[in-house]
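Pasting two entries for a bug report.
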Amino acid sequence: MTLDSMKFYIVVPRAATNYVTNPTPYLATTGYTASVGTIALTDDVSRRGPGCIEVTPTTALSGVYFGTVDVVNNQDYAFSVDVKGETGKAMRIRVEDAGATHTYETEFTATGNWQRVSVEFTAEETADDYRLYVLRDATTGTNVFYVDGFQFEDNEETTFFSGDTQGFDTGRLEFGWNGTPRASTSFRTANTYAGGVLVDIEDYAYKIITAYGLGAGNYQQLLTPLISGGSYYQGFIRKERNWSLLLQYHKSKTGSLQSDRYNVLKNVMPVGQEMVVRYQGLDSDGDEATEPIDIICVPQPSHQNTPDNPLNQRDILNFTIPSGVLDGAYKEGVELGTSESIANANRIIQQDLETGQWSDVGGGTNGNVYAIVESPNGDVYIGGAFTLAGGVANTAYVARWDGTNWHPLETGLNNTCHTLAFAPNGDLYAGGQFTSASGVANTSRIARWDGAAWSALGTGLNNWCEVLTLAPNGDLYAGGSFTLASGVANTSRIARWDGTNWHALGTGLNNTCFALAFAPNGDLYAGGFFTEAGGAPAGYIAKWDGTSWSVLGAGFNSSCFVITFSLDGDLYAGGEFTLAGGSTANRIAKWNNTSWSALGTGLNDVCRTLIFTSNGSLYAGGDFSQAGDIYTLDGVALWRAGAWRPLTVDLPGTPSVFDIMVHHSRMFLGYITTGTAIANDITNLTVSSKVNAFPSVYINGPGVLQSVTNYTSGKQIQFNGLTLLAGETLKMVLDPINLSITTDWRGDVGRYVIPGSDRGNFYLQPGANSIGVFMPSGTTAATKAYIEYTPRFDGIEGALHE
C-alpha cells in the first residue's frame, strides 16, 4: 500500500448522542448478535480500547449486528464502525429493520487494516427495531474479521466517542454516559474541541500544497560539559513544535475566495482549548494508507493579510503542538491478569526483575532456607535446614541451582548451614551448625568448597558460625557463637582467616555475632547479641578498624541481625531493637558515621536481612507484616525514594524471610513456609506507539489492589488498603496532563496511592512491555483488569501502514 495523497480535516465541535449502548465491546458482547456466523471477544487486536469483537463467518452473508436502535421518520442518521477484514474481500455495513423492509448499506473492500466505514440515510418510518450490521460474503472465504467502535447518531457522521472518552478541559463535563457506563447511550457536548464533525480543508481551499513541521519532532539533547573536555550525555526532552499548511485558494471552488478563507479561519480561531486537526493518508484507490492521526494543537496567527488577487491566493495556516508528538485517532490495549498462583513455592522463590515474573525454584526445599548467594558464573547456592533441594539426592543443607536444576556439593553437610560467601577466586565458604562437610576432617561449623571438593579451615570452630564476609584483601571473617577458631586465643564470636591461619580481633565479643559488613574505607562493622567488643561496652553493634574496637553512638537497645552499606557509604542495620542511639528506630536504622536515624516508622517485627540493589533500592526481610504504614503481606518490603513498598508476591502462610539475593535481573527470597504463593500476573503488551504512551487502566472489582507495574520501564503505582467492591470500577488515567485515579463509587482514591509511586510518570515504551497487576486476595470471576493507550508518533511517517 503506497501513500498517494494526504487529507487534513478540522474537527469542529458538535453535540451528539451515540445510541449504541455498548460501543466499545471489550467487557462483554451485550447488545451484539451473530448473523449466521459466530462472535467472541478478543484482545488479539483492538481499535477503541482493550479489545473488540472477533467475527467468524460461516455461510452466505455472515457477520454481526447490534440492535436494536430507534429511528424517527424523516430524521437523518449516520452509522459508522471500525472494521478489520481480510485483504481484498468484499464487505458491507448495513442498517436494516427487523423485517428487512428498509435497508441502507455501504459496500467496501477490506484492506487488511482497520477502516472506518459509514452509511448515512434518512429514515422512512418511525420504528424501534433497527439493527446495525457488519457483513462478509462467506462464499469468498471464512477468515475472521474484527469490529469495534459502533456509533449510531443523528444527522451526519462525527468522530467516534463513548462515555469514557477524555476531553481537553478537566474542569467541565465534555463526554459522559446517560446512564450505567457501557450499558447506556453516551453524549458529547458542544463545549469540547476533542470531537465533532470532520471538515475537509480542501472543501474550501482549492488544494493543500504542502505541510510543514510534521516530520521528525522537535527535541533538545541534554549534554553537560566535562572539565576534561567533551560532554556527558544525559538524554533528551521533547519540546513543543510548530507546523503549518500551505493552502491554495481559487475563486472557482465555491464562487468566493474570501468566503473560502473565512470558512477555514472561523474553525481555527483561538477558543481557550486545544483543537484537533485530523490527518489521514490515502492510497491511489482512496483507501487508508496510514493510521488516522489527531494533531492536538493550538492555532497561531494565520491568513493575516487580505488577498491581493480575487482569483488565486496562497496563504498559510499555523499551529503549535504543545506535546511535540502526534496522537493516533484510536486506542489499543489488552486485558490484564490480576494474580497468578505459584505452586511449590517451598521456602524459596525467584523473580525475573526484567519481566516481573515470579516462579518456583525447582520445587523448593524440604527445610528452611537461610542463605542465598550467587557465584561468579551466575549459579545460585543456598544453605539452610533442608535435607533435599528439589528432591535431588545429597543436597543436604547446601545445594546449587543452575537456573534449571538442583545439584549436590558432594554429599553435602551433616547439619544446618546458616551462611554462605564467595571469595574473588570463586571458592565458596559455608558456615553453620554442621560438624562435617561430606565427611572431610576438621570441617566443623566452617568449610571451603572449590567447585570440586570440600576442605577445612584449620580445625574449624568450636560452636555455630552465623555469618561470613570477605575483606577487600580476600581475608575471610567469621562471626557466630563460637569461642575458639582452630584453638586460637581471643577468637571469641569473631575471627579472621588469612588463607592459612586464624587470627583474633582484639579480645573478640562477649556474645553471639550475627552480622558483619565492610565499609567502603575497609572498616569492619559487627552486630549481634553482644554488649561488649574488645572488653569495652558496645550496644549490639561495633566497629573494628583493623587495630581496635569502637562504638557507634549509644548503639541499640536489643540485638542486631544484619548490616549492609548503601551505595553512598551509609550503614543500615536491622534486628530486634526499637531504639538506635537513644531515639526511636523500630527494627531498622541508618548510621551516617555521626548519628542514627530511622527509616520512616520502621518495621513492626524483627528484621533479619537487608540488601541494596544497584539502583539504590533497599530490600528488607524478616518477621514483620507492616513497614511504616504499609501492610506487606509477608516479611519483605522495599525502601525506595523515602517510602516503604510491598513486593508483588504473597508468600505461603506467615513466613519469616531470612535472606534476599538480588543480582542483575534476578531476585531470590529464602523463607520458612511451604505451599502456593500468589504473585502478580504478567501480560506482555506490544505497543505500536513510536514514542512513550500514557495509558489508562480499568479494574473491575471485587478484590484488593496492591500494584500496577510496568517492568520494562520500571514504573509502578502501588496502593495501600484499596479494596474494590463487587461492581466497583477503578479508572486510572495516567496522562500527566490529565491525571486521575477514581472509582465510579468513591470518586477520587488517590489517597490510597503509596508515596513514591510513579503515577505522574507511568508510561508504556514503544515495543514490548511487561505489565503486572497484583490483586492478591478477594477476587472472583467478575474481577477484570484492562489497559488501553493512544498510540503516539514523532512524525506522520510513523503512522504508515506497513
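Entry 2 (this is the one that rendered wrong in the viewer):
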Amino acid sequence: MSRFILIQLFLSVVCVNVALSAKTQLNVVPCPQVVEFQTGSCRLSGTPVTIKLGTKNSLELVFEAEQALQLFPIHHTTDKKELTLWLGLFGEHKQFNEICKKYGISRDERIGSEGYILLLQKDLIVIAANSSAGIFYGVQTLKQILMDTKKDNELPCVKIIDWPQYRFRGMMDDISRGPVPTLAFMKNQIRRCAEMKINMLMYYIEHVVETKSHGDFAPDEASITIPQWKMLSDYAKKYHIDLVGSFQSLSHGENILKHPNYKHLAVTFRMFNPLLPETYDFFKNVYSEMIPAFNSDFFAINCDESWDIGVGVTKETVDRIGLEQFFVDHVIKLDNIVKPFNKRSIVWADIPLEHPQILDMLPKDIILGAWEYSPLESYESYLKPLYDKGFDIIVTPGVLNSTRLMPDLIMAHDNIKSFIEAGVDYDAMATLVTVWDDGGMALFSRDWYGVAYSAEKSWNIHGEENNPFDVRFNKTIYGMSNTALTDAIKIIEKLVYLPPTQELNENVLWQKIVPDSGHTLFLRTDYWDEISYICDQTDQALELADANRFAVDLDYFDFSIDQYRYLAQARARMLQAAREYNKAYQVEEQDTFQAREHLLVAKDCINKNIAQLSAIKAEYQRLWLIENKVWWLDKVLNKYQSVLDAYQDVQTHLVKALARLDVNASLLPPADCRLDIVESNGDYFQEWMISGPFANENGAKGTDFDFLTETGGIKSTKPIAGQTFPAPDGQPYRWSKYHSPEFGVIDVTQKIGYAENAVAYANCRIYADADQTVTASFASDDGVDVFLNGENIYSKRGERKFTPDQDSVKLHLNKGTNYVILKLFQGTDDWRFSFQLLNENVKHHKYKYTLLNN
C-alpha cells in the first residue's frame, strides 16, 4: 500500500482534543503579518476532524498533510459535529476553489511563493497558498496556535494573511572550532528551524568533511561524509530548508594545512597559496564532491579574514598587481569551479569592504555576506557599498557565542534587530544569523533565543511592535505559561557588564586560582558577591519555568548559572584556605592543636571546590553528549581536570602538613604549598594582542628601532588579530590574541616563549565616547615604552623586577578608538607586564576595552 493511501486513511478519522483560548493576540513565532479577528468562536475539543487536500497532485502535499496529522491526537467520540481542515493550492482544485470563494479567501499578491492564508471558523480550517512551502508554514502557524490553548476555552474566529520579509531566512552553525553535532542533533536543528519558518541552513566547514579524494585531513571521530551531507540535505529539503554547502577556501585553513600532505599548499599556517596550481586542483576535487550533495542553489567559498595576503611567497605578486587584484583573481578561479554546478558563490564581505576597489572587480553574480556582530546605530557602511555596486547581499548578524561561557543574548538581540531592519533598506536577499564556536566549548542549546529572534525579524520586522517577542518566545517555543526563561536571561546577562566576568569570556573559568609552587598569586575579590547574588536571582527566575517542549534547553542555562556560582564561591574558599594555612603557619609553635584546626578548615575549603567543580565537569559532559560527537570533548574536560589536579595537589600538601604536625616538624611556607595568595582588586587588562620576539642586542636598555616598519611603523600600526607581517629581518611575524590566565599579570614568555635580549609588542584598543584624560597604571619586567595613537608618551629602560602598578601616565584619549602599544624590552629571566586604568569603569571585549560612563 502506498504511503499516500495510508495517510488518506488516517486523515478521515482523526479527532481534535484541543481547545483554543480566547484572546486578541496570537502567540506565534514569527509573528504573522496580518491577523484579522472575526465574529464567532472556534471550540475544537472532542470534535472529529477531516483533512482534505485541495491540489491537482495530492502527492505534492503529502509531507504537509503528515505535519498536519501530527497536530491532532486520535480521540474516539460519538459527537456528530465535524471539523474540516483544508490544505490547498490556489486554482488547482474545484471544491477547494469553491470553499475559498465562499469564505472570502482569494489570491493575495503579497503572500508570494512562501506566504499563506489561514482561516479558522467554527467548523472549518483552511490553509491556502501558492506552493507546498506556503502550506507548510501555514501548518506551523496552526501548530503554534494549537499549542497555545487551554482546556475548555475558545478562540475567536480568525483570518491570517502572512508572508516573509526576506526571501531567504537562514542560520549558520560553526562546526569546525570544536563541537561537531551528531546527525541526530542536526536533524533536530532542521526541524526546530523549520518550525520557525527558517528556510536556509549552513554549517561552517573548514575540515570536518570527508571526501573520497581527500579523506585524510578530516578527523576520523568527527568527519561528516558526503553521503551523510546528502542525507541531511534531502532531509532539510522536506522541511523546505535549503542546506547550503560551505568550505573555507583561503584563510582559516590551519586545520588542513597543518596536515603533512597539505603543508606545501600553505603561504602561512592559516592561508592557502593562490599562486600554486595544486591549490585549485585541491579545491576542485573537494568542491566536485561536496557541491552535488547539497540541494541549495548557493555554495559558500567564504574567503574572509584573509590578512596574510602579501606576506611570504605572495609578497612579490601583491606588490606587483595589488592586493585587490590578487584577491579577485583567487575568488574568480574558485567561482569558475562552482559555476558548472549551476550554483552561485557566497563570499564574506569584510575584505571587499576594507578594499572597496574589489567591488568594481568582482563578478556581480557573486553573493556577498555582510557581517557585524555588535549593535550599532547604523549599518550603512556595511550595506550601502555592496548595494550601490549591485551585489546581492546577505545580512549576517550573530549570536555572540565565541569564547564565552554563555552567549551574550542581549547584545545579540540588539544586533539582530538593527542589522536585519537595515537590510530591508538595502534590498538584501537573505539573512543568516551566525553561531560561532571559537574557543571550542560552546553548547548550542543556549542559542535558540537568538536563532528564534532572527527568524522573527527575517519574517516580519514589525512583528514585535504590538506583540512582545519575549512573551511569544516563551509560550510558543517552550509551551510555558510565563516568561521565566527570558526573565532569567535578562538577569544573568547583567554579568556582561561586571569587570571580573569580562563580557562572559570563557577564559575567566580557566583563570589561575591556585598559585604555582613557590609563587604568589593575586586573586581578585571585588564583584564576586554581586555575581553570586545574580546567580541566585537567575535561579529563582528559572525555577518558575514550566516548559513542556524542549525542556532540556533549560538545563544548559542552569549549567551556566552553576559555573558562575562556582567561580564566585571557589575564589572565596581559596582565599579562606590561604588565610587558614597562614594562621596555622604562624601559631604552630605555640599551639599545635589550633594549627591543626586551621589546616582542617583549609582542607575542607579545597574539598568543597573539588566537589563543586567535579559536578560541573560531569554535567558539562552530559550536556555536550546530548548535542555533539565525542570528538574534542576530552580537550575541554582536560581543562577542567587540570584545575581539579591543582586543587588535589594543594589537598596533598595539606595532608602532608597535618602529618608534619603529627611528628612536630615545622610547616612549610605557604608558597611551597601553593597557598601564597594575596587578595587584590583592580581592573587589569587581561587580553592583548602580542607580537615578537624581535632580536635586540641592547636587551633591557631598549632600542628606538621600529620593528613594525613593514606595516607603516608604530605610528600607523593598527593591528588585527591573526594578521601576519614581514619584519625587517625578512621573517614573518604575527599579531595574536593572548588572554592571561593569571589575574593582574601578563607573562610574555607564556605567549611567545622564553627569549633574552629581545623586544615584543603588546596592543589593545580603548574606546571613549568623548575626548577625555584618564590615568593608566602599569608595570613591567624589564623596560617599556608606552605609545598612544602612535605617539610615545612614556619610556622606562633598563632591568627591573615586576611590581604591580609601579608606573603611571596620563592618557589623553580621543573620542572613538584609541590604540595603545607597549614596546616591551627583555634582558634575561622574567618578562612580564600589567596595565589598568585607575578609577574607571571599563567593559572588556577581547583586546578591545570600552570606557563606560560612571
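Dev reply: Rendering is fixed now. As a check, the viewer should reflect this: The chain has 22 helices and 34 strands.
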